[in-house]
Design brief:
Layout lengths: L20 E2 L22 E12 H14 L1 E2 L8 E9 L4 H7 L4 E10 L10 E10 L2 E10 H8 L5 E2 L4 H15 L2 E14 L8 E11 L10 E4 L5 E8 L5 H9 L9 H8 L20 E2 L23
Antiparallel strand pairs: 1-8, 2-7, 2-12, 3-9, 4-5, 4-9, 5-6, 6-7, 9-10, 10-11, 10-12, 11-13
Organism: Nocardiopsis dassonvillei (strain ATCC 23218 / DSM 43111 / CIP 107115 / JCM 7437 / KCTC 9190 / NBRC 14626 / NCTC 10488 / NRRL B-5397 / IMRU 509) (Actinomadura dassonvillei)
GO biological process, one term: polyphosphate biosynthetic process
Protein name: VTC domain protein
Amino acid sequence: MVPPRDPGPAGNAGNAGHAAKAAPAGTPTGTAAGDRLRAPSRLHAFNRYELKYLVPADQARDVRAELTARMRADRNAGPDGYGVWSLYYDTDRLRFYHEKIEGLRFRRKLRVRRYGEVGPAAEDTPVSVEIKQRVNRVTQKRRVMLPYHLARDLCDRRVRVEHPGADQAFVDEVLDLVHRLDLRPTAMTGYRREPYVGTGSDLGLRVTLDHRVRGRDRDFDLRAEAESRYIISPHLAVMEVKANERAPYWVTDMAARFGLQVQRVSKYCQSVEAHGMAPRSVFHLPEEDVVAEARPLGSVVEAPPPVPTAGGASSGPRS
């Protein structure tokens, strides 16, 4: 499938397949292996305000109907959305996790993201290397598309990757960040996403419904069908509202009518907590949902009731 793109100047999938390459061995990596961070790259950057809600399964269909009436489905998505798989990097003491939990006004995280179905893929499969950060109430995301093997060279093997044009500044910033903070793969997340985009006066608005949110703390290969566990109850969907300035009134009114409240929920933090790396949060599974744990991604799990997806299909666990 075509990798979905957020509105704005962030997309650059066309360069992923062939333009970037690993630099020769011994190429300098910057200021003494990252004694300081580079100034942030501006290319492929955009700012957003974000709101997140947890939607119970019995309300998901009605919420979807209202979104469908006011927005259009993202043209990159299939009838029931698309898969999103992310590998997050952190320090051995989970610096990025604690920055989020403590609600620091400036915080960030590094991740490598793959769009599409889980399973074997070629080494040149395009993935997105992203730095997502929060500055006060504004969410900023900067990213570059790379073939998967070069993304691993950059983030795992700490090899300088050459990329054309202004993208090189961001690639070098990622390398400096990995060196300076000694980042390593920490947790993975995967889920099914239904994306909707605004039109007319709501241009720039994006709302997503994420179902079957799972994670793992090992087998950090974005191509592997490895074991996973639910990190948010399968009885809940995560609704994310992203707007350039503020969410339209009808969105907050809809949330109020359905009794939804804004939540501070991070899929990365949920995965960290679910796998015992940090204390568990209130959004984790109750004991009756233990059956959903430790199953391969995409395998059949008894976890009723699943959240229905667009077109009447179920977003519960399936083969």
